[in-house]
Amino acid sequence: MAQLSEEELSGIYDFTVQLAKDAGRLLLDGAKSRMGDDGMPSLDTVEKDSSVDVVTKIDEDVEAFVKNSILFLGEETYSKGATREYLVDDLPTWVVDPLDGTVNYTHIFPMFCISIGFVFQGEPIIGVIYAPMLNQLFSSCRGRGAWLNDTTRLPLLRNPIPPLPDNAPKGCIFSCEWGKDRRDAPDGNLVRKVESFMNMACELGGRGGKGGMVHGVRSLGSAALDLAYIAMGSFDIWWEGGCWEWDVAAGFAIVREAGGIITTANPPGAPETDVIGKAPLGGRLYLAVRPAGPSTTETGRQAQERTVREVWKRVVKLDYSRP
Amino acid sequence: MAQLSEEELSGIYDFTVQLAKDAGRLLLDGAKSRMGDDGMPSLDTVEKDSSVDVVTKIDEDVEAFVKNSILFLGEETYSKGATREYLVDDLPTWVVDPLDGTVNYTHIFPMFCISIGFVFQGEPIIGVIYAPMLNQLFSSCRGRGAWLNDTTRLPLLRNPIPPLPDNAPKGCIFSCEWGKDRRDAPDGNLVRKVESFMNMACELGGRGGKGGMVHGVRSLGSAALDLAYIAMGSFDIWWEGGCWEWDVAAGFAIVREAGGIITTANPPGAPETDVIGKAPLGGRLYLAVRPAGPSTTETGRQAQERTVREVWKRVVKLDYSRP
């Protein structure tokens, strides 16, 4: 498959959207089966097993469902937990997280979703993220825009798309996650992250000049939905390390199709001047900036790059690698 | 009005739910009018004015709508911004935030809502929180339970209601907000909050024994919705200082009716043994713990109190007062 025709692309896109809807329904059914009221009897197993086991089972069920569905298409597939090796090559590959936001799902906090990315020649070109309890489906197909619930184009504000604030990160919503690495060590990722969050949040001039006075700090517990809200224009900046390609493949496709950019979380040697490249899909370090319209003095891309550099000046390098 | 009959209560409850639905629709219309696609022309004013002005206008419009509606009932009303004095007395009083999650609304991140509390003899006895872009309406009436979208009883998991983890805060979703006080001062609320967040998040044994290893840290940017998700059982712990009674009045009613508790954020002199009282509605310091079922060794209330004490051991006193 050297190239994909527009017709093939359409077929794969429609298939992916439907697959996400079906898989999302499984997730929602799983959540509802744990509730007690309204004709939805709770499963005995829920009371006997730990909620973690229940979630693992749903996760595996949805993964099996997705894999079986994709088998018909005959592409390579891999998803969360299969391996820590980076397996994406030039062949068409599905990169799937059957359940992103696992902790949220355990607690039935609605910020959970299925995330399906279709990667071709190393680039995510189709992405679908479906959060069934929010009734929000985010999707994109290369060259055809990014969409909310099939009908509303992303970003939501697009007439015109608002420019980024002149003094970003001030005025921005900054999205970030605390993650699983909670070691109490000066060089641990928890300390590095929180120092970075503090710099972004603190008043201008504070923290030795690093204070960014962002408008708000948000943590949802789902990398896929963080990226969806970047594409929507709801979050201005997402900075994160530690997640994997299955968490972000669909989000990469959706954010880029909406006009956002994703580069690496870790500042390079010369954050003021180094080239701002695309984040490697499997790099575990991500910095996304929302779609931005032009102002009177700069293009949207220039404003995005300015914002990236302002973030890089304020954050500490994170320490995540692949095994 | 010395007492309220069940009939009067029903009338006020139905009125409040309808009022929240109507007001929420105004919020949603306001958001949609700023989007450009799908037959929803963007307002010229949006491009001319800053988004802050636009939001202020919506906020005022919705407040006027709510006030006009409530005037028919002839009760006292006050809401956000009217004054910083605490005005709730024994008379029936409406405590309203026409738009909670203002920053989210500005950015069209769906975590915004209208919050309407009906306070009688100093106690919030009816609460309605409506997040129109999430299509989630949380409501409660004294003695009649707390509900999601009129039909699903809260908390969501209730057959049985899960106990709190034995080793809480480990295993808990911890919800917290960064707030507006961003001073770079050792005794500022930003530093106090972040130190507390770090203690809650850090591995067990870390931070001089204060590490709580919570399952996840969440920040939504809406106190009303934080409390709604406590009532739902999605968040286990919410710890916050700085917000006002209009942010929490409806949430107080809903959380308590669902079986959760709300006490003060600031640890007392003897966090291990001091009586755990109700948080004053206007105290600006709140610690909420979700509804909890019994385990084999303790009642739900005992587990909630144990959790409160474990939080108090880990957090720093916040510095918020009334003018």
TrEMBL record, chains A, B:
The record's listing under Pfam families reads:
Inositol_P
Which Enzyme Commission numbers does its entry carry?
3.1.3.25
Q: Name the pathway it acts in.
A: Polyol metabolism; myo-inositol biosynthesis; myo-inositol from D-glucose 6-phosphate: step 2/2
Q: Does the keyword Ribonucleoprotein apply?
A: no
The record lists the catalysed reaction(s) as:
a myo-inositol phosphate + H2O = myo-inositol + phosphate
A GO molecular function annotation here is: inositol monophosphate 1-phosphatase activity
What this protein needs as a cofactor is: Mg(2+)
Reading the lineage from the top rank, the first entry is: Eukaryota
**Family as reported in the entry's similarity comment:** Belongs to the inositol monophosphatase superfamily.
Q: What is this protein called?
A: Inositol-1-monophosphatase
